[in-house]
Specification:
The chain has helices at 21-32, 50-53, 79-85, 128-133, 137-144, 146-156, 168-178, 217-227, 240-244, 259-268, 283-289, 302-305, 328-341, 347-354, 359-376, and strands at residues 9-13, 37-40, 56-59, 93-98, 112-117, 162-165, 182-184, 205-208, 231-234, 251-255, 272-274, 294-297, 320-323. With 383 residues, the protein is an alpha/beta fold.
Length: 383
């Protein structure tokens, strides 16, 4: 009797310190591949959802540093070395989920390495100046290491057999940075959880965001200070203390909140505000799935997720309003425009559009692409 040896699979993720967009994609991959191991730089136990936490998780040498959860972002220059030291040589299929260094993991020559890429390393390329300008002495160090990080980022892309991109925006960056083609597979939102209630909306606007520099939370605070409109901000991050010092009475920081609270706010808010330039951005789609319109800066992933009111057509109803000037005044002006045409946004149209980004759609597209690559390499399909 011949016994087939089970395929060994590794899911490689930059770090597991909270549930943001990348971790939601990883959770979906864990649903597809529960037999896989997760390799990661840093794991904070309990920081992710149950599906991720019950996987076998292997941390890097950085994970052994005392209290590393509090300062891991400052270890960026060490991360390329740490990811390369993670032993991935025993796996047949490696799927890296990467916005920083995860794609740099080194597997065996016979393995298939597919990278689901959220962006080429943002700390070294598109958003380096934004991070560096807000980190003081650490920002100067980031700039000093930029040449090393960029060289490593380009070199480590050669460890990847095939790139999948989270958006057309990211696919273009992958080509510009690595000169590699990437197939676009949009990430999923939980369309079974994020649903509308059909109740009347309240007067407050909403922002749901990690409090990181490139999210432009400070712009939202200043715009709503000028307008005097109520704004609720859900999220946590390294800029929380700084932002709280400039908050007027009409702006409320709610901190980190559960998915249930976030969903409740999506269902009740007047509109979601999205001033940052994202690689893709799951938050606007989650809000739309709950029937909320979106006011977004017209760049990056928002161009692929928000159907602007000016592009309204019989085949696709608008789901939001895009504005061109990524400034405080640009956002304030967009809010005023939204209030003039608010009745033209129909919740059922937002919900129908968001349902196109379901987990079932993501997994169907992902399975099709990876199965084709496995067959070309002579490997069996593990689902």
């Amino acid at each position: 009797m011949i016994f087939e040896v089970p395929m060994r699979i590794a899911l490689v993720h930059d770090w597991l310190t909270g549930m943001r967009g990348g971790e939601k994609v990883l959770s979906c991959l864990c649903r597809l591949l529960p037999q896989a191991d997760i390799l990661t730089l840093i794991h904070v136990p309990g920081a992710c959802d149950a599906r991720i936490e019950r996987m076998r998780i292997i941390g890097s040498v950085l994970n052994e540093l005392p209290g590393v959860r509090h300062y891991y972002r400052y270890l960026l220059p060490l991360m390329p070395l740490a990811i390369e030291r993670l032993d991935a040589t025993g796996y047949d299929l490696i799927i890296s989920s990467s916005h920083c260094v995860a794609k740099g993991v080194i597997g065996s020559p016979s393995a298939l390495h597919v990278c689901y890429c959220y962006t080429p390393m943002r700390y070294a390329w598109a958003q380096q100046n934004i991070y560096a300008d807000t980190l003081g002495w650490s920002g100067l160090a980031l700039k000093a290491f930029s040449g090393y990080l960029r060289a490593w980022d380009i070199r480590s892309a050669q460890h990847v057999d095939y790139f999948l991109a989270s958006s057309r925006n990211v696919a273009q960056r992958i080509w510009q940075t690595y000169h590699r083609h990437a197939e676009v597979i949009y990430p999923p939102i939980d369309t079974e959880f994020f649903t509308p209630l059909g109740e009347d909306r309240e007067d407050f606007y909403l922002m749901v965001s990690a409090l990181a520099p490139y999210k432009r939370v400070d712009q939202a605070v200043l715009a709503f200070t000028r307008l005097g409109r109520p704004l609720k901000i859900i999220g946590s991050g390294q800029q929380l203390a700084k932002l709280r010092r400039q908050v007027p009475k009409n702006v409320e920081f709610l901190g980190w909140q559960s998915n249930e609270v976030v969903r409740d706010c999506y269902r009740r808010c007047r509109a979601l505000v999205f001033p940052g330039e994202e690689d893709f951005g799951l938050v606007p789609l989650e809000a739309m799935a709950c029937g909320a319109a979106v006011i977004a800066y017209g760049a990056g992933g928002a161009l692929e997720t928000v159907i602007d009111i000016s592009q309204e057509a019989a085949s696709q109803a608008p789901t939001g309003l895009l504005y061109a000037s990524g400034t405080v005044e640009g956002l304030a002006s967009a809010i005023r425009r939204f209030e003039q045409m608010e009745k033209r946004f129909e919740p059922e149209h937002m919900v129908a559009w968001a349902r196109r980004f379901s987990p079932a759609t993501f997994l169907r597209n992902f399975k099709r692409s990876v199965a084709h690559l496995l067959e070309k390499k002579g490997l069996s399909v593990p689902w």
